[in-house]
Amino acid sequence: MPAVIDLSKPVADILREGTHAAHERAEHSKGAQWLARGELDKQEYVRFLMMLYHVYNAFERALEQHATHPVLAPTHNPGLFARSANLAADISYLLEVSEASWQSHPLHVALQAAPPRALSQYVGRIEELAAGPDPSTLLAHAYVRYLGDLSGGQFIRRRISKAYGLDDSAGVSFYEFRPLGGTTSASDAAANAGEMKRIKEWYREGMNAGVGDNEDLKAAMLDEANVAFAFNTALFDELKAPSQEEVPSSPVDLPSPLHSPVDPSFSSPIITDVGHDSALLKHLKQSGQSKTVFVADQAPSEEPKFSAVSVIAFIVAVSIAHFVLVVGGFTGIKGYAKLEGLQAWLDNYFGTTTQA
User: Lowest mean pLDDT: which of 112-116, 171-175, 287-291?
Assistant: First the structure.
């Protein structure tokens, strides 16, 4: 059932709560599972990195373009977050080519010649926001990617290193971050788990500062963050099954928001536009109600299920127990005495002592 999101909360809390269902869908997609288990063929993993390169290249250029925007400025730290160069280095290493030549590799040439629909729409959406009158919601795309890299990406790094026999940071620099406020020296080149947690806290604080108390903007951020998750789920769906696994007979459909060309209608079923006045907020304004709630999709919870056989077996067991207690005289004061005698016999037989 839908979850009610309180728009008076800080935007970081709103995004964490309001994207839960979308995050679950992305995490449990087949492609994400192959990636997390390190099962993708090496060439397919490189192709995935190439797709990510184009996504990061698009929104990192957009963030740089709008670096002084009041919503984006508090979290703008390319020295800490920029992933494009790391992706290029990993791709080059895995292909065993120079960083200057990987884009002319046949694998990348083929990707450019026939880019997956999900990739084209993802990049197109970012470019559209960057060219629009208000680029604020680029922050939602950065939030989805960067905080994901700082969290689940660290688990994936270990699996990838093991799957493809990679040592140190060679081939997995995409998953590495420098310490917050660190330098480029070798001694602090990679942040540890505690430092990554501090980076995430710093980022959330910057988001809250940039968005402030603007509830219209908070609703737009939540809407766009769910769109970003849908794009990432669609990228996972583009991954080819591992060679040892049977390929499905029919392709996996892209999430419904991605079936149409890039336009501002990419949104959840509840919110119908990505501008700062969502459909719900417009209704609240017109009716004079407070703008404090936002309805977001939530994954349905499964109710416990019991088979008919289990229920019947339980009823029969209770009936037999009742029959034994009554017929055997184990009720009332006399019954209590009998039970004490039975317990003493069990203790003696098994050599145990019952403790209260």
Answer: 287-291
Mention every residue, 6+ apart, whose C-beta is less than 8 A from residue 237.
29, 30, 31, 118, 252, 253, 254
Give yes or no: residues 33 and 171 share one domain: yes
**Amino acid at position 211, single letter:** V
pLDDT of residue 2: 55
In this structure, which amino acid lies at residue 36? A
Q: pLDDT tens digits for 17-43?
A: 999 999 999 999 999 999 999 999 999
3-state secondary structure of 120: helix
pTM (whole model) above 0.85? no
* Residue 38 and residue 154 in one domain: yes
In a shared domain, residues 329 and 206? no
* In a domain? residue 19: yes
Q: What is the distance between the alpha carbons of residues 174 and 182, in angstroms, rounded to a whole number?
A: 17
pLDDT of 252: 38
Bridge partners of 4, per DSSP, are 295
Q: Which of 203, 223, 240 is the last residue of a domain?
A: 240
Number of domains in the chain: 2
- Note whether 207 and 332 are same-domain residues: no
Report the DSSP beta bridge partners of residue 20. none
User: How far apart are the C-alpha atoms of 160 and 149, rounded to whole Å?
Assistant: 14
Domain with 335, as residue range(s), is: 317-355
Phi-psi region of 217 (alpha: psi -120 to 50; beta: other; left: phi over 0): alpha
What SS3 class is residue 294? strand
Neighbours of 205 (CB within 10 A): 14
Same-domain check for residues 17 and 107? yes
- How far apart are alpha carbons 65 and 49 in whole angstroms? 24
